[in-house]
Amino acid sequence: METRAPYVLIGSFVLAAILAVFGFVYWLNNTGGIGPRTNYQVQFQGPVPGLLVGAGVLFNGIRVGEVTQLGLAPDNPRFVNATISVATATPVRSDTKVGLEFQGLTGVPVVTLEGGVILAKSSEPLTLIADAGAGQSMTQAARDALRRVDTVLQDNSGPLKDTIANFKTFSDGLARNTGKIDGILAGLEKMTGGGTPAQKITYDLRTPQNLGPAGKTLSASLAIPEPSAVAMLQTQRMLFAPVGDRPGFADFLWADSIPKLVQARLIDSFENYDIAHAPLRTSDLGQADYQLLIDIRSFRIATEGEARVDIALSARIVDKNGKVVASRLIEASEKLDKVEPAAAVAAFDAAFARIAKELIGWTVQAV
User: Fold this and answer.
1) Beta strands 222-223 and 240-241: pairing type?
2) Which of 76, 84, 306, 315 is most buried (CB neighbours < 10 A)?
3) Neighbours of 7 (CB within 10 A)
4) Residues 6+ away with beta carbon under 8 Å from 332
5) Which CB contacts under 8 angstroms, 24+ apart, belong to 228-236?
């Protein structure tokens, strides 16, 4: 027995599926579904490249309908009239802004609606007027901008040529004076403290070694606090009289500030004289019987007349009660044949050796 295929049933099923697909596609492309629609007339005051019937209509970025008709305005062939069909619930007003937007990589155009607050009269058909440049694509806008730039360049070709010539003259001048410019920049960098700082050379004051035999030693404990000095002497720089900078001393530094350096070398000198009865660095390390108070009056190079090194110390010996036991002004000068760092340090060493020897002898006799 031969079985017949239900052709009618299969055909009906295929037709229903096709209708369902078409209905689904229509629903996807129409956010309003098959609900009530309202038609509006839109006039574009220029070309609308790529706009087709069936193109979407967006209100504030949401799809609300599509373009149903396109045509040229009979009274002005430059204008384009379009009819859009949107969901009736869309709040279209007489002052709603109309534009044309190109979406995606392919630049598919859609009609855009935005805002509006003025209600239209129900008795009059609503016609929306698009902006003058609504149909201008990004490509066209770029072309127009380049065309305007080209016009500006053509109108100002003479001044531009002169400007370029002036730049060339300026660059040639810079090339010819590169060395001078480098020197100026280096000077500015040095003046503002920039760049790599120059390496400072540190010099120390030598402790005298040959102070003679310790015929008499300190009979009581002695402390030597840091000497006092005016603010100008609180430095590691070489000082001059008259005051001023001297060639060769820009990078000169004493090993410590002048008061601390004098204190350290005086203590070293007392130790070299009698290490068994060496003085303390400060009375804070214990109550010493006496203190040797030093005031630095001079520690400089004098350049008036014959160049020389001057050192002057005012010394006082004070007991536990603060009573001054003895006081003395000790001075020494050393001739300076050449005003340069090495010779100056050697002269300071010689002058300080005489001061240290005299100060030690006087202190040992007074204590």
Assistant:
1) unpaired
2) 84
3) 8
4) 310, 311, 312, 351, 352, 354, 355, 358
5) 228/259, 228/293, 228/294, 228/295, 228/296, 229/258, 229/259, 229/295, 229/296, 229/299, 233/258, 233/259, 233/296, 233/299, 234/258, 234/259
Q: Which stretches within the chain are classed as H helix?
A: 7-28, 138-155, 157-176, 178-191, 258-273, 341-366
Q: 212 is written with which tokens?
A: 């003679």
Contacts of 319 (CB under 8 A, 6+ apart): 289, 290, 325
- The Cα 95–Cα 106 span in angstroms is 30
Helix (H) / strand (E) element for 69: namely strand 62-73
Largest CA distance in the chain: 153
Q: Report the C-alpha dihedral over residues 346, 350, 356, 361, rounded to 10 degrees.
A: 160
Residue 314 host element (H or E): strand 308-319
Sequence-ordered list of residues with C-beta below 8 angstroms from that of 95, at least 6 positions apart, any chain: 115, 116, 117, 118
Here the tokens at position 4 are 């017949």
For CA atoms 299, 265, 316, 330, the dihedral sign is: negative
Confidence of residue 115 (pLDDT cuts 50, 70, 90): confident
- Residue in 336, 329, 332 with CA at minimum distance from that of residue 304: 336
In sign, the C-alpha dihedral spanning 269, 275, 281, 283 is negative
Please, what's the b/e burial string for 129-166 (b: 16 or more CB within 10 A of its CB; e: otherwise)?
bbeeebbbbeeeeeeeeeeeeeeeeeeeeeeeeeeeee
Q: Which 8-state DSSP code applies to residue 310? A: E
Q: What is the pLDDT of residue 31?
A: 46
Domain range 201-366, CATH class: alpha beta
Mean of all residue pLDDT scores within the chain:
82
Query: 200: which 2 tokens?
Result: 């400072």
Residue 355, CA distances (Å) to 259, 288, 342, 358, 360 in order: 15, 23, 20, 5, 9
- DSSP, residue by residue, 182-241: HHHHHHHHHHTT-SSPPPPEEE-PPPP------SS--SS-EE-PPPB--GGGSSSSPPEE
What pLDDT digit, counting tens, does each position of 280-304 carry?
776 555 678 889 999 999 999 998 8
Q: Are 254 and 202 a contacting pair, CB within 8 Å?
A: yes
**pTM: predicted TM-score of the whole model, two decimal places:** 0.48
